[in-house]
């Protein structure tokens, strides 16, 4: 009987989460993005990751959770980058927006990028973005940059810009996208 309780409790929690996600999505508070699983962008799954249109709502929800400050800051930074990408284009022009998570590739091993997108208006190719809140390396971005899959790749950080390494301040991402006319 105890195992049934756990199973039922889990399904109740899953139902609550699904209901909440559907409510947030239908209310226009969040947007799902696509998970791409290969470098040809053919193997994908929809609605795998959600981003908030309002950072205040995300901040409130995250602070009410049991997450540590570093995780919350990472979510806020990624969500800010998401909003910057959408703001750089008309929202209809960036329909192809997702993230990349490749597992056990023969050459790359595991690789993950926070955002990959394509400007559907100009059709100039894919752009890869890695968001870092702290001063950590963008290992996946560096591995993928050498594969020439992306028209452009960029690492965003909290405050400083280093053009020679392709690192820009997260606050400049919108302008970077606009100036490069992807």
* Main pleated sheet: 7 strands, mixed
| Percentage of residues assigned to helices | 25-40%
Spatial separation of the terminal alpha carbons = 58 Å
Number of strands: 7
Estimate what percentage of residues fall within beta strands. 25-35%
Give the structural class.
alpha/beta
Poorly predicted tracts of residues? 1-8
Total of DSSP H or I helical runs spanning 4+ residues: 5
Radius of gyration over all CA atoms, rounded: 18 Å
Instruction: Summarize the helix and strand pattern as letters.
Output: HEEHHEEEHEEH
Shape: globular
| Average of pLDDT | 76
Largest sheet, spatial ordering of strands: 2-1-3-4-5-6-7
Topology, pairings included?
Layout: H1 2-26, E1 30-36, E2 44-52, H2 55-64, H3 69-88, E3 96-105, E4 109-118, E5 126-131, H4 139-145, E6 152-157, E7 167-169, H5 173-180
Parallel strand pairs: 1-3, 5-6, 6-7
Antiparallel strand pairs: 1-2, 3-4, 4-5
In short:
By secondary structure, the protein is an alpha/beta fold. It has helices at residues 2-26, 55-64, 69-88, 139-145, 173-180; strands spanning 30-36, 44-52, 96-105, 109-118, 126-131, 152-157, 167-169.
Write up this protein.
- The chain is an alpha/beta fold and 182 residues long.
- The chain has helices at residues 2-26, 55-64, 69-88, 139-145, 173-180, and strands at 30-36, 44-52, 96-105, 109-118, 126-131, 152-157, 167-169.
- A seven-stranded mixed β-sheet has the order 2-1-3-4-5-6-7.
- Helix 2 packs antiparallel against helix 3 (69-88) and helix 3 packs parallel to helix 5 (173-180).
- The radius of gyration is 18 Å and the shape is globular.
